[in-house]
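FAQ: What does the model actually see?

It sees only this:
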Amino acid sequence: MLTASNRLRSSAEFTATTRNGFRVAKTHLVAHFHLPSGASGPAKVGFTVSSAVGGSVVRHRVTRQLRAGCQGLVADLPAGSRLVVRALPAAAQASTSDLQDELRAVVCAVIAKSTAQ
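And it is asked to produce this:
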């Protein structure tokens, strides 16, 4: 489980991250990453799984799988950074290992993209 200090909670943080951050998309996931200037504190992660992914049971299963995959990745994120992971409809049919592999790939790619600029 992600700790409370590592979770994005407010819609303002979600909006700021998706509008101002860098984005990388793959088959099942889209990652938005933002490192505000002068940011400090723990890195925060949020998830967006819309009804296009599936019913309530499917959406919560996908969210749990993503949350479990982010446990190990949150330590690699820069301090004060914000990450929003959005699940695409194809994520409903993906296996847990496929989702977690793709999660690692999009997070690494979006961090590399943000540091390159």
